[in-house]
Amino acid sequence: MGLDMFAHTLDAAPASPVDFEVGEYGELHYWRKHPNLHGWMERLYREKGGEGASFNCVNLLLTAEDLDRLEADIRVGNLPRTSGFFFGESDGSEVEDDLRFIAKAREAMADGLIVYYSSWW
Questions:
Q1: pTM above threshold 0.90
Q2: Do residues 9 and 113 make contact, with C-beta atoms less than 8 angstroms apart?
Q3: What is the DSSP string of 51-116?
Q4: Distance, C-alpha 68 to centroid of its chain
Q5: Spatial contact of 8 and 115, defined as CB atoms under 8 Å apart
Q6: Is the pLDDT of residue 1 over 90?
Q7: 48 to each of 52, 59, 63, 111, how far by Cα in Å?
Q8: CA-based nearest residue to 59, from 91, 20, 99
Q9: Sheet architecture: strand order including 26-32
Q10: What is the mean pLDDT of residues 96-106?
């Protein structure tokens, strides 16, 4: 049990940036128990109009601008401290992996794919 986090790709943009249904998707990246990144994604979800009672098993569209913001926050250590039942703890060792994700997401977008985040805990 614990926080499993995913970045996936789609061939076409969903109708909404949050809470959209997904059929077929491509796998892009996986994190295990990185709650501070999850907290950053939840904040973005709320900014984009997400109203789910819990930020679990919901989909969040990521744009190039979102990736720019995320990269800036990662580089200055500005991911919000986040905790939750079975979330584990972010310890700073995740930075290189997070930056690898951003590079892969930008490459996928350059190839015309749509990138989104989801999690399950």
A1: yes
A2: yes
A3: --SSSSS--EEE-HHHHHHHHHHHHTT-PPP---TT-----STTHHHHHHHHHHHHHHHHTT-EEE
A4: 13
A5: yes
A6: no
A7: 12, 11, 11, 24
A8: 20
A9: 26-32, 4-10, 114-120, 60-62
A10: 98
